[in-house]
Amino acid sequence: MPGSRLVILALVAINAVEAAAAGAFLEPEKIPDPLQLPALLDEFEAVLGSELRQSATSRVEHIAAALSGTVASLPKNQRGAVSAASARYAVHRYFVQRHGWQIKGLALQGEAWSANSPALAFGGSVSGEFRDLFAERVGTHGLDLHELAVLAATLEDMIHGEVVGSVTSAYRLFRKPVEKNLNQSEAKQVIDFYLANYYFGVNIT
Questions:
Q1: Is the pTM for the entire model greater than 0.85?
Q2: d(CA 44, CA 42)
Q3: In angstroms, rounded to a whole number, what is the distance separating the alpha carbons of residues 94 and 73?
Q4: Rounded CA Rg of the chain
């Protein structure tokens, strides 16, 4: 199918970006009132849309299983949630192990794990108000295993969608229809162009 070929090329582009992991730093635990917490999926859907929710929901159980070993080794509060620093470390570690991705806002940049909230990983895809509210929620209540999986699945879908959009734009710039099978030279041209723009921080969508 045309869409599947485009997705495969997008995945090749994603995996061309290498990553590095680092050690963890743990914060003191937070003690929340769990009865006041709305579901993360509901909050994300309100901001990012129902289509992304459906895609993320389908993978939450699998991602939770992948995260469970890391989360089991981290300190937790009374509702079984890890702190903001531990959440940042756990989700970063998942992406490094699963994809080899170093995500801005999760990966260390010479600071401690506690220096930034995992909310920064949303970047400019959400409003500053939403990032602040999410950072406050994580800082106060932490994230349990299911919530960590929801966050990881949501970020995964956002990154995938962004890359597919960028690769589609590269197709258009080279006047290649997205339903066309590219030969090796054409595929290399599209991917090289995408990566050059990625590394130089140019938005081609």
A1: no
A2: 6
A3: 14
A4: 18
